[in-house]
Amino acid sequence: MDLGIAGKAALVCGASKGLGYGCAEALVREGVNVVIVARGAEALEDAARSLQAVAAGAPGKPFVRPVAADITTPEGRAAAFAQHADFDIVVTNAGGPPPGDFRDWDREAWIKAVDANMLTPIELIKATVDGMAQRGFGRIVNITSSAVKAPIDILGLSNGARSGLTGFVAGVSRTGIAARGVTINNLLPGSFDTDRLKSTLAGAVKKTGQDIDTIRAGRQKNIPAGRFGTPAEFGAICAFLCSIHAAYVTGQNVLADGGAYPGTY
């Protein structure tokens, strides 16, 4: 299927690895020009080289421009927009806050979580949505978490901050921009085979004393699909939401978790 977005320009955050990289790669394969942002310069350059190799065989040979910056800061956002001014697609993404007991989190911990996982996506939406509406096309996809649907007790910082973004998107996506070709959706990952998951599993090994294979098998057993997802699978969903075919999908929370969420709605 031709997604109809070749030649468009996308900003993809947290794109040096994992789910952000999966989204960037899927867009590049469709001929989308991408500006990729992450804090780690070395990993980002590696990602850029891999994406440039993909771009060489993609429609129109799109550009790939890496920006090593902290997108949660005004300076980081300015550096990204200096590479390209008018984005047609924005994929927001930030690493989740650390787990823990809410009794141990002070105001600074909460502000940091809200800043990264709620306020930064809002700033990126604010910076791009009106230009998208003027041009008659725009796609914003926020990578959030399955915890928005099924909160995890030790991830209170993430539950709170990401739920705030979810509420904001529910409102703004249904304003006048919807009739002007701009959609805003949230993409909620469950367990995907990324560095963050590996870190979580390693933490479980230390806590339980079980070996990594046992921990991994136990987690997968609780997923109806019987396995963890891949960044490529996640990226394909993201690319579809950014396509011309998803023009009638907005204000939604798209859950990708291999069937792990047990609810009906």
Detailed description of the structure:
It is a single chain. 45% of the residues lie in helices and 14% in strands. β2, α2 and β3 (64-68) form a beta-alpha-beta unit. The radius of gyration is 18 Å and the shape is globular. 39% of the residues are buried. α1 (18-29) packs parallel to α2, α1 (18-29) packs across α8 (231-241) and α4 (107-135) packs parallel to α5. A seven-stranded parallel sheet has the order 3-2-1-4-5-6-7, with helices on both faces. It starts with 8 loop residues before the first strand and ends in a 9-residue tail after the last strand. The chain is of the alpha/beta class and 265 residues long. The protein is built from eight helices and seven strands.
Brief overview, please?
The chain is α/β, with parallel strands linked by helices. The chain has helices at 18-29, 41-55, 74-83, 107-135, 156-172, 195-208, 212-221, 231-241; strands at residues 9-13, 33-38, 64-68, 89-92, 138-143, 182-189, 253-256. Strand 1, helix 1 and strand 2 (33-38) form a beta-alpha-beta unit.
